[in-house]
Amino acid sequence: MSKDSKHNVPLTYADAGVSIDAGNALVSAIGPLIAATRRPGADGTIGGFGGVFDLKATGYSDPLLVAANDGVGTKLRIAIETGRHDTIGIDLVAMCVNDLIVQGAEPLFFLDYFATGKLDNGVAENVIAGIAKGCEMAGCALTGGETAEMPGMYAEGDYDLAGFSVGAVERGDLLPANVAEGDVLLALASDGVHSNGYSLVRRIVERAELDWSSDAPFQGGNLSEALLTPTRIYVKPVLKALAAGGIHALAHITGGGLTENLPRVLPKHLGAAIGLDAVTPSPVFSWLKDAGGVEETEMLRTFNCGTGMVLVVAADRADAITEILTGEGERVSTIGTVTAGDGEVSYSGQINWAATA
């Protein structure tokens, strides 16, 4: 065939690396997953140009909408390199909805963005199944999303994720509010590294000369499985605690750790005092610190170090809130108080890295 003949052959989108049929098949396959996230305000169907949500159906009288978006960072590399795609979607949901609940907002709906060079429907279905599971855990509807197949933009087998969620809170219940000197700081335990600091995690694994199939040095089982433990979703227990009254603020402990995230909810004329001896790290953090030779200050501003959420609670409500959260399966500890100050957090004592949770 001559050069001119080749140029005369009709091209299709599939010839360019994008399969419309594969995309349509994926939409059909995930239909039941979407339906499982149905809740008041959303019917659990997809296919329109935009997801529709009926705010009136939720029963709010004077709601404010709160929006959050996020990704899961380089934790994705572990999922991609090991072929474990079933929990990374839970991380995606968690990183968004936990940011809503700290403002007192109930997550209502969620949308995802999945981008890849060549669509592998098996991988995509596993990822979206995790997203749907995360939505169920948070009580929000998966109302839609976007699957983008972009040849030349990603290496073979790679993909990226982003999520977007909207929640609602009655106007008078928006947090933080009424934070006062003497308030108690309650810590909710994390389920491991969650979704921050994985660039350092991967560097430490490399330095330790381990691979993802190695046994986890800090617990039983496989290293990749342990490090892919999904981010804990705190929504339902915290909603129950919020309804009981007495919570003035919450901080989601993500990138920046306690050091950077707790000050975000403190008024400028107040500070916080944390007793590090009350902070109990998960075994993974003790290993990361030792294997990487990471200084304690760096650990505290990079990782959650065992605390995934901090509640700022009126002192006379601390016991009642602790009882509610414990009853909901949360591991709760008192780690400090709100003090007079300038928005900064002070620390006393030392973390006992050997006494892991």
Shape: globular
| Total E-strand runs | 10
The assembly state of the depicted protein chains is single chain
Q: Spans of 5+ residues with little confidence (pLDDT < 50)?
A: none
Portion in strands:
15-25%
Alpha-beta classification: alpha+beta
Radius of gyration: 22 Å
Kindly describe this structure.
- With 357 residues, the protein is an alpha+beta fold.
- It is built from 12 helices and 10 strands.
- The protein has helices spanning 3-8, 20-35, 75-82, 88-101, 121-138, 198-207, 223-227, 235-244, 257-261, 283-292, 296-302, 318-327, and strands spanning 63-70, 106-116, 141-149, 159-170, 184-189, 247-252, 270-275, 307-313, 332-340, 345-348.
- Strands 6-8-5-9-7-10 form a 6-stranded mixed beta sheet. Strands 1-4-2-3 form a 4-stranded mixed beta sheet, with helices on one face.
- α2 (20-35) packs parallel to α5.
- The longest helix has 18 residues, at 121-138.
- It is globular and about 75 Å long.
- It starts with a helix and ends in a 9-residue tail after the last strand.
- The model has no long low-confidence stretch (mean pLDDT 93).
